[in-house]
Design a protein that fits this description.
5-stranded mixed β-barrel, pyruvate-formate lyase- activating enzyme, binds iron/sulfur cluster, alpha/beta
Length: 426
């Protein structure tokens, strides 16, 4: 949007304006946001700074002086940032805190941000949904993002057309509670959207960001499976493998119900589908027995990638004041969760040893021995020797593993041609 208004967008200092899209999911995320805003100024003395997204929305609850930013812009009005920035540079008097009228629970509007083209990424992250009304007992996000809203379909399809016309091969659909896209909560509107996107010329891959388990149905999964460009990877947050902890978290499923969802996915997509997850450890009520049980469940569920977070109490949520394991215990549990995650990812990756995989090149590292890398459809990072342009499709044979990373030997140039041009080579 800034490019459309004649600005230059740069990734290296010096810059006149730094904009930080922030997160408020943990206290650490907020601390990192403040550090980054200070870094903007150190790297470009005199620059202006704008903070937006969830941490900004959280600050809006108290509106205390916030010296790290010139403007603090709340959720659902990020589309106004270019105009606000220009007003700032013209020296117009502006309130430091900028927010949408009403409260997050009364908002119905879509934040009309648009992605015109990719500057530094190969994958196009297309936001299609915002807000959540699930109110898990630990989560501040449903308080800051407001009620679920969906982006108009026409705007999504337009954005995908624009991105693919500019060479973007992979579309990643994102949202706070993606399964609520279309309002029904049963995933089917999302499935139909994926089908429509797949019919746009140039779309080579479609995948999801995180998908909550509540909206996964057989009909939805079947629609995805029958869409050739849909990548067989699901990131579905489990959070805990203990029923009592899940009940306190207000997640709305039991371990058995979650396991049934995994079976459904594996039945429909086949056993090699990659399912990754999030774990929240050190939650109030998680004793050591519950934690050990969670590790066992996670191992049995055969996840690939694991993201592990120690519980961070967020003011304004029910779990904020509940008695909980100590910080040290939570951090120790997180370390053990991360260690298990490395084992699981390596175990999952080992299924690809000796197999042929395909990547969309994301970047080339120009070290002494240059290599390029990208993700496979199953969302494993694969590395090839040599150089390649971002966005190219490359195939290779997995010759070795480095933890969860695939080290590949390139196939011949002929094998890198699209299917139709390979002169009968299968
Ligand atoms: S479903 Fe996700 S975004 Fe919604 S309240 Fe729970 S953790 Fe937060």
């Amino acid at each position: 949007m800034f490019l459309e208004r004649g600005w230059d967008v740069v990734s290296e200092p010096p810059w006149d304006l730094g904009i930080l899209f922030s997160c408020s999911v943990t206290a650490v995320a907020e601390r990192k946001s403040r550090a980054l805003l200070r870094r903007f100024l150190r790297q470009s003395p005199g620059c202006r700074r704008i903070l937006c997204s969830c941490y900004a929305q959280n600050l809006l609850r108290h509106k205390k002086p916030f010296p790290e930013a010139d403007l603090v812009v709340g959720n659902r009005i990020k589309y106004r940032i270019p105009q606000l920035a220009e007003a700032l540079f013209r020296g117009e008097p502006l309130e430091q805190y900028q927010e949408l009228e009403g409260t997050p629970q009364t908002w119905n509007s879509w934040d009309d941000l648009k992605l015109f083209r990719l500057l530094w990424h190969t994958r196009g992250f297309v936001k299609i949904q915002d807000g959540c009304d699930h109110f898990c007992s630990y989560c501040i996000i449903s308080h800051l993002r407001g009620k679920p809203v969906s982006r108009p379909e026409e705007a999504i399809l337009e954005e995908v057309c624009r991105l693919t016309a500019g060479g973007c091969g992979e579309i990643v659909l994102t949202g706070i509670h993606l399964g609520r896209y279309g309002g029904t909560g049963n995933g089917e509107p999302l499935g139909r959207l994926v089908q429509k996107i797949s019919r746009i010329a140039g779309v080579r891959r479609i995948r999801f960001g995180s998908l909550e388990p509540f909206s996964i149905t057989p009909a939805f999964l079947t629609m995805l499976r029958d869409t050739p460009q849909f990548c067989p990877h699901f990131h579905i947050p489990l959070q805990s493998g203990n029923d009592e902890v899940l009940r306190r978290m207000k997640r709305g499923y039991t371990v058995r119900e979650f396991a049934n969802i995994l079976s459904l996915i594996r039945n429909i997509f086949g056993e090699h589908v990659h399912v990754s997850t999030d774990l929240l450890v050190g939650f109030p009520g998680e004793d050591s027995q519950a934690f050990e049980g969670t590790l066992k469940v996670v191992e049995e569920m055969n996840f690939g990638k694991l993201h592990v977070f120690p519980f961070s109490p967020r003011e304004g949520t029910p779990a904020f004041s509940w008695p909980r394991p100590s910080r040290q215990e939570a951090e120790e549990r997180a370390r053990r969760g991360v260690a298990l995650g490395e084992i699981l990812l390596a175990r999952y990756a080992s299924r690809w040893l000796g197999q042929t995989v395909e990547i969309l090149v994301e970047k080339t590292e120009s070290s002494e021995e240059p290599y390029f890398q990208g993700h496979t459809p199953h969302f494993l990072l694969a590395r090839f020797p040599g150089r390649a342009f971002s966005g190219e499709e490359r195939r290779g044979r997995v010759a070795a593993l480095a933890g969860g990373e695939l080290l590949c030997t390139p196939l011949s140039e002929k094998d890198n041609l699209p299917e139709d041009d390979r002169g009968g080579v299968s």
